[in-house]
Amino acid sequence: MDLTFDSGAFLLSIAAVVAMLTRRLRLPYSVGLVAAGIALALLRLTPNAQLTKDLLFDAFLPPLIFEAALFLPWKPLRRDLGLILLLATVGVALSAGIAGLGMFYLAGWQWQSSLLFGILIAATDPVSVIATFKEARVRGRLLILVESESLFNDGTAAVAFAVALELVLGHSLSPLEMATRLLLTAGGGILCGAIVAGAALLLMGRTEDHLVEMTFTTVAAYGSFLLAERFHLSGVLATLTAGLMLGNLGPQGVISERGKVAVASFWEYAAFVANSFVFLLMGMREAHQNFVTVWLPAIIAIVLVTLGRAVAVYPCCAVFARSSLRVTASHQHILFWGGLRGALALALALALPEGVPQRDLVIAITFIVVAFSIFVQGLTIPPLLRALGEIIGRRED
Q1: Which tens digits make up the pLDDT trace of 158-211?
Q2: Taking each helix axis from N to C terminus, what angle separates 257-286 and 29-42, rounded to the nearest 10 degrees?
Q3: Is the Cβ–Cβ distance between 124 and 153 less than 8 Å?
Q4: Residue 97, CA atoms < 13 Å, CB-side half-sphere
Q5: CATH class for domain 53-394?
Q6: Calculated CA dihedral for residues 199, 202, 205, 210, nearest 10 degrees
Q7: pTM reported for the whole predicted model
Q8: What is the number of H-type helices and E-type strands within the chain?
Q9: Is the predicted pLDDT of residue 114 greater than 60, yes or no?
Q10: What is the 3-state secondary structure (H, E, C) of the chain?
Q11: Is the CB of residue 127 less than 8 Å from the CB of residue 340?
Q12: Which helix (H) or strand (E) holds 67?
């Protein structure tokens, strides 16, 4: 069952308490939420709600993507765009390939489930890392690289997943048709986002009412996503485009001064609410997972996903080692270990049709890999930042 008003209010109150406790204990917020969700399930205090594909796609993904894109400044993003795009394309392909091939040969999965798992698990979601950065007042290039690379690889992973799903469902596609479908899905999504954002900016320029301005950003976030999905295009890239446009063009005389403050506060809260629900509901589901029956493929998947992330980050960064886009070793380590899995990987796994081989197993392993990244990587990022603190402090370029 999806969220109701009663269950939503209950979970939000839990999220507020968890936020207070994790801040006081200096723990990543997402770790506290998943732990709270597990505790609620074990104590049988969970509301009648569960994490579903529709809930993730229709309610939670748009605000998460839009809020992250809204606060990405275009100038430093443009400077590192070549590196970011390489990580989000070649890096995602390498990561997906290692995870997919590994599950096929080592775990004995069918090629269909291996392919889909490899692609969906390549999408990163460093919510814990970004929150830790902000708490530690980490700024500059490192923050831009981690957040923008995650956003763009979410987009490419979602597009690749849609094409791979067609193959798995029996639609015969030639290499040329696959390339064309990828370009159309990605390009169409970007176009949808640009059209919706352009219309929102045009209308926002005719008002100074901060409530109306907030409303237009909400319409842009959800409208771009739903419009693209309606035409089987990339909703992730559509919302990413809309967020980038509104976040960088809006403050240049389109949004009023009061509107800038209101929009920033509103979307910060919207992302907080969306993340709270995702991680609490995820914890509630993890509590009922039977790890005994899937421990071997789970361990194999965790090792492969970690290895795939390393192969995605270090070689791609090495390409720029002798250029002005050189990434320091400490930044590469944080890009690697900060590549947590989260909402999009869960959404894509839950979106698998019933006819996909080993569907339930793929979903179970995805939840376990996401839980591992949140608890193990999420909890060890602060010590890693402290260990590299002097280096990062000198290299905020």
Answers
A1: 999 999 999 998 877 888 988 999 999 999 999 999 999 999 999 999 999 999
A2: 40
A3: yes
A4: 9
A5: mainly alpha
A6: -10
A7: 0.92
A8: 20, 0
A9: yes
A10: CCCCHHHHHHHHHHHHHHHHHHHHHCCCHHHHHHHHHHHHHHCCCCCCCCCCHHHHHHHHHHHHHHHHHHCCCHHHHHHCHHHHHHHHHHHHHHHHHHHHHHHHHCCCCCHHHHHHHHHHCCCCCCHHHHHHHHHCCCCCHHHHHHHHHHHHHHHHHHHHHHHHHHHHCCCCCCHHHHHHHHHHHHHHHHHHHHHHHHHHHHHHCCCCCHHHHHHHHHHHHHHHHHHHHHCCCCHHHHHHHHHHHHHHHCCCCCCCHHHHHHHHHHHHHHHHHHHHHHHHHHHHHHCCCCCHHHHHHHHHHHHHHHHHHHHHHHHHHHHCCCCCCCCCHHHHHHHHHCCCCCHHHHHHHHCCCCCCCCHHHHHHHHHHHHHHHHHHHHHHHHHHHHHCHHHHHHCCC
A11: yes
A12: helix 61-70
For residue 15, how far is the Cα from the chain centroid?
20
Structure tokens at 317: 């960064």
